Task: structure prediction
Amino acid sequence: MGGRRGRMCRLLGLIASGPVDLEFSLERFRRLAREHPDGWGMGWYEGGEARVFKQGISALDPESKLPQLSRSVKSSIILCHVRRASCGRVRGENSHPFRFDNWIFAHNGTVDREQLRRKLRGRYAEGLEGETDSEVYFRWLLQCLEGEGGVEEGIGVAVEEARRSAKGALNFLLSDGEHLYAFRLGESLHRLRRGPGELSCSSPETGALLRGKLLRGERAVLVCSERLTEEGWEEVGEGSLLRIGGDLRVREVRLL
Result:
């Protein structure tokens, strides 16, 4: 969901060759949380099962569980989000990521909630947690995936329709527990391939968001709304979808 002013929500996704942690340095994360104070969340896979934890408070709030979670979660796929609300109240149910079956999803942008909601059918229309456009966008994506019989085909149909009434960006991260998908339309999105032990930052603050102890020993691909380090981040093409599997091969397909 988009911002009231200034920059929109921030996305961070990671897929690695083995379980990793994301032990966040609050000095770095505080910058993002100051601009995105309306909630935060993290999604990951544990024993192949999707897990999500989120709060409708700033990541800087004394009650935030971010420090503990970023140390304890170890997974080969992790999705993170900090929210700047535009649709839906500031509460946990409206924070990202969202989970449905074994899918996890986080969004950066604004779509027409009611228009997409009217297109939902069957179980995709049932049991919405909160009031956000992003959750409806997620359900719409999954409905299209099922209808088209393929991920790339389904996402292509979904984003083409969502674009007709979009009020902001359509950027998202999506995972089924085996792949990390990332789509860019309307806001910046970057990717980075990192080998074992690689953490080349000229400033400790710049790379502090990604200093997981286990990450140093694994290969990984990271996708983020902004470049977090001085490493060789590549811009994801506008209208393009990334598909990254467990072998960490990156497939980029232009959809729009």
Summary: The longest strand covers residues 10-20. The first helix runs from residue 26 to 35. The CA atoms of residues 33 and 59 lie 6 Å apart.
